[in-house]
Amino acid sequence: MINIIGSNNSIFNQFISEIRDEHIQKDSMRFRRNMERLGEIFAYELSKKLCYETKQICTSLGIAEVAVLKSQPVVGTILRAGLPLHQGVLNYFDKAENAFISAYRKYEKDGSFDVEVEYISAPSIEDKVLIITDPMLATGSSMALAYKALLKKGKPKHTHIVSIIASKEGIDYICKTLPMNNITIWVGAVDDELTVKSYIVPGLGDAGDLAFGNKS
Question: What's the rounded Cα separation, in Å, for the pair 213 and 93?
Fold first, then answer.
């Protein structure tokens, strides 16, 4: 299942417009905060698909029956660009365990590249709900490799992939490469084009650099 949150009018699209805006992007703190706010909205929408149980809660005046999460998810992200989005999701799933994956593009002299995963820090994900965040789903290869790397920590009950902006090519790649009977994709917007360097157009640029500064 693919959910495009920005396809319906809401304040979500205000934050999308600001992270795309090249003038507002100059304020890196604002950029990070907008990604965090988008993560919070993703978490809220995603939470409607999780499992709940009824608990009796004692108030000062009596007992209320409230539906609460049956279990906490594991929230993972691809470093470094995914950190503000991860924080937004974590703000809502504040009791969740966390996973971090370091993946990067290793460029060749001809401009081509392979994506390599070099570091994983994660708890067991066996039979748990897994949420993986990455602000941009361009080719889809980083997300696919991150998912496969996390399988070393167990087989999740269900996986939710969260990206702010995706390309059609990236979504197609995920759908062809990963077991979609056990995966739900959540995106803010889907753009049509990838450049020869695999940047999404119109996209927003390099999310990691905009959030944390240029890398050498």
Answer: 28
Domain ranges of the chain: 2-212
Report pLDDT digits (tens) over 27-61.
999 999 999 999 999 999 999 999 999 999 999 99
C-alpha–C-alpha distance, residues 216 and 207, integer Å: 15
- Split at pLDDT 50, 70, 90, the class of 110 is low
Q: What are residue 122's phi and psi, to 5 degrees?
A: -155, 150
Q: What is the Cα–Cα distance from 57 to 68, expressed in whole angstroms?
A: 10
Q: What are phi and psi of 105, to 5 degrees?
A: -90, 120
By C-alpha distance, which of 126, 204, 133, 139 is closest to 169? 139
Q: How many CA atoms lie within 13 A of 5 on its CB side?
A: 26
**Would you list the DSSP string of 91-130?**
HHSTT-EEEEEEEEEEE-TTS-EEEEEEEEE----TTSEE
β-pairing, 129-133 with 136-137? unpaired
What's the Rg (C-alpha) of the chain?
A: 18
Q: Class of 2-212 per CATH?
A: alpha beta
